[in-house]
Amino acid sequence: KIPVHTNTKSPQTTTRGHLTVLISGGNFNLSQTANQRSTLQLLVDQSLPHVTIDGMDPAQRERRNALFGISGIRGNYPQIFVTTKKVVVGNGGEEEEVECSDVYLGGYEWLECCDLDELRELFMSNSDAEDEVNDEQRHTVNEISVEI
Question: What are phi and psi of 131, to 5 degrees?
Fold first, then answer.
């Protein structure tokens, strides 16, 4: 008889993280607008993976409100969060998100004072993290720069 090998490998759980930046595309406060632009530019320059949530976008209202609830701050931008997701990767490579959590870090002032090397190391432990700083994120920074 020829031995039959079946794939008995169990699904793997991995944790992925990125920064979530809450901004407002309709912000008329020059200081907040400059801080939004500087925050996004710094994240792109440092190749830190991030997702931008525009508080003015009706499609992102639910996410915005959830982030407001975590920070306890409304109407002050930018707000920076670390978002971690637990993902189960099945035998066929399919992924299923099983848990997501956000922790409020602070605003632009926090980013200016934090250890960027340590922050980068935290996210670069994911081999694909640098690829996540993509053209869309660079475009978002450029759009905010044009608006000022």
Answer: -65, -20
Q: For the ranges 25-29, 88-92, 114-118, which has the lowest average pLDDT?
A: 88-92
- 73 phi and psi, to 5 degrees? -125, 130
Closest CA to 41 of 118, 124, 127, 111: 111
Strand 12-23 relative to strand 79-89, pairing: antiparallel
Written as six digits, the tokens of 30 are 């020059």
The whole-angstrom separation of Cα 76 and Cα 13 is: 36
- Quote the CA–CA distance of 39 and 89 in Å, as a whole number: 32
User: Mean pLDDT, to the nearest integer, of 134-138?
Assistant: 52
Indicate the pTM of the whole model.
Answer: 0.75
